[in-house]
């Protein structure tokens, strides 16, 4: 291949990508990528600005990248990233694109392992390792809080003595996006760090089922089961995907029995507690209940803020404290939503060069959170007060002491304090009041008047009614 070929190939790729993403997304995530080399006409190496960049592409655009490569280079095209680590001598590290288009381990590569799952001559027939674990998902980055304390503590115990505790099987359940996958990867990585001779196998319910079907067609079920029999630790993520698949459950039942009887560790995740799982045979369900089931719940404000700070430290960047606080207070759903908002905010700050304001973050939150769950903004509250009182936001922000303007200003502070999770400092700053005591005074004044002033009571109810229809 001549030197110009890699540039030509990447230019063709960019043309396809440009037709499949928005302009801002293309400018932010694809334009800064530089083609490095093309090997054997099939293996493309791309240089990306940072490890954060690499993780974002793998998490959000790997499907598009791989489909584009196949279209330009044909079947069998592969992708590798070069990440700079030393700007002085331009040296970098190379990372393959290991995450498949649908975020699951490759079935094809797993099948290659299963063909010869345990033959390493001369080393006590130890099996080929096939952990498929994400090395970045560790206990160091799994923030502890009331929402996960039991599960995290149990995971640490298991990592010390896999298969030797009462937590076998260990079933972690929760709604989506609350850290199940992170936790089981952290356990697997900790086991490998402490017990390098262990075979840790991570798979998903969907992959396990697909493998079973493939091996059934090949009349190679014995090889399939032998592979899993050799696991020291078996982790099956989203095991609820086996619901209604009786033959797959039958195979898992036998694998489960063999491993449990051999005091090997079994770790499962699911979207609900075992007792509520539907479409499973009773004998398999009864085994899910043998060990410990631990729930992950939505993180509280303090935990959400810690998660954001840990993520920022990982990326080596910072955001103003009020922005971090605003995200932590207003994104109250899943950790996935929380991290999505943070990453989008960082993208605006570091890639697009936008000045990060509360208003911008509010809009970013709107792209990640269901509309009905969006937090009210100060602008929305002020607009509702203006609608009912006729006092403009400009007047509220002025130093005027006219009675109607003072009341309107106090109403905004009072409603913001009760209807949002913004700090008094943030509320005061919005109305050009530098001292948070102005908010305390305004709230106390409105609360006192509401006890006896029926006109004010109706006014407040009218404003709240208006705000209920905002989202």
Written description of the protein model:
With about 475 residues, this protein is α/β, with parallel strands linked by helices. The chain has four domains: about 5-95, GMP Synthetase, Chain A, domain 3 (2-Layer Sandwich), CATH 3.30.300.180; about 105-295, P-loop containing nucleotide triphosphate hydrolases (Rossmann fold, 3-Layer(aba) Sandwich); about 300-375, Helicase, Ruva Protein, domain 3 (Orthogonal Bundle), CATH 1.10.8.60; about 380-470, DnaA protein, C-terminal DNA-binding domain (Chromosomal Replication Initiator Protein Dnaa, Chain: A, Orthogonal Bundle), CATH 1.10.1750. Helix content is about 50%, strand content about 10%. The chain is built from 21 helices and nine strands. The chain has helices at about 5-20, 25-30, 50-60, 60-75, 105-115, 150-160, 180-195, 205-215, 220-230, 245-260, 280-290, 300-315, 320-330, 335-350, 360-365, 380-390, 395, 405-420, 425-430, 435-450, 455-470, and strands spanning about 35-40, 45, 80-85, 90-95, 170-175, 200-205, 235, 265-270, 290-295. The strands form two sheets. It has a five-stranded parallel sheet, with helices on both faces. The protein has a four-stranded mixed sheet with strand order 1-2-3-4. Strand 3 and strand 4 (about 90-95) form a beta hairpin. Helix 12 (about 300-315) packs parallel to helix 14 (about 335-350). The chain is globular, with a radius of gyration of 27 Å.
């Amino acid at each position: 291949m001549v030197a110009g070929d890699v540039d030509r190939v990447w230019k063709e790729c960019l043309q396809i990508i440009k037709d499949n993403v928005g302009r801002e997304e293309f400018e932010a995530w694809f334009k800064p990528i530089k083609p490095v080399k093309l090997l054997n006409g099939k293996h493309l190496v791309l240089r990306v600005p940072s490890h954060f960049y690499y993780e974002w592409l793998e998490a959000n655009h790997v499907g598009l990248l791989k489909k584009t490569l196949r279209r330009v280079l044909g079947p069998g095209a592969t992708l590798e990233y070069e990440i700079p680590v030393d700007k002085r001598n331009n040296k970098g590290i190379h990372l393959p694109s290991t995450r498949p288009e649908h975020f699951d381990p490759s079935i094809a590569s797993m099948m290659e392992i299963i063909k010869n799952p345990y033959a390493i001559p001369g080393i006590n027939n130890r099996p080929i390792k096939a952990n498929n674990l994400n090395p970045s998902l560790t206990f160091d980055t799994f923030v502890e809080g009331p929402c996960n304390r039991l599960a995290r503590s149990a995971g640490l115990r298991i990592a010390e003595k896999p298969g030797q505790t009462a937590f076998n099987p260990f079933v972690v359940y929760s709604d989506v996006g609350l850290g199940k996958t992170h936790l089981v990867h952290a356990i697997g990585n900790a086991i490998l760090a402490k017990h390098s001779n262990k075979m840790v196998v991570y798979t998903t319910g969907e992959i396990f089922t697909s493998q079973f079907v493939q091996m059934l067609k090949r009349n190679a079920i014995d090889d399939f089961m032998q592979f899993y029999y050799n696991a020291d630790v078996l982790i099956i993520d989203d095991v609820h995907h086996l619901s209604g698949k009786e033959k797959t459950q039958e195979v898992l039942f036998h694998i489960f029995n063999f491993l449990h009887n051999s005091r090997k560790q079994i770790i499962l995740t699911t979207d609900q507690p075992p007792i509520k799982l539907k479409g499973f045979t009773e004998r398999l369900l009864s085994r899910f209940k043998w060990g410990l089931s631990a729930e992950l719940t939505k993180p509280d404000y303090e935990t959400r803020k810690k998660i954001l700070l840990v993520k920022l430290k990982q990326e080596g960047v910072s955001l103003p404290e009020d922005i971090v606080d605003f995200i932590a207070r207003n994104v109250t759903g899943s950790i996935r939503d929380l991290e999505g908002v943070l990453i989008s905010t960082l993208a605006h700050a570091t890639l697009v060069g936008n000045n990060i304001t509360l208003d911008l973050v509010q809009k970013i939150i709107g792209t990640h959170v269901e509309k009905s769950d969006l937090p009210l903004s100060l602008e929305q509250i002020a607009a509702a007060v203006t609608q009912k009182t006729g006092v403009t936001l400009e007047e509220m922000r002025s130093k005027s002491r006219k009675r109607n303007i003072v009341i309107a200003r106090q109403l905004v502070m009072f409603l913001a304090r009760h209807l949002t999770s913004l700090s008094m400092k943030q509320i005061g700053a919005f109305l050009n009041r530098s001292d948070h005591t102005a908010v305390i005074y305004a709230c106390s004044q409105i609360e006192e008047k509401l006890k006896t002033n029926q006109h004010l009571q109706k006014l407040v109810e009218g404003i709240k009614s208006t705000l209920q229809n905002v989202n």
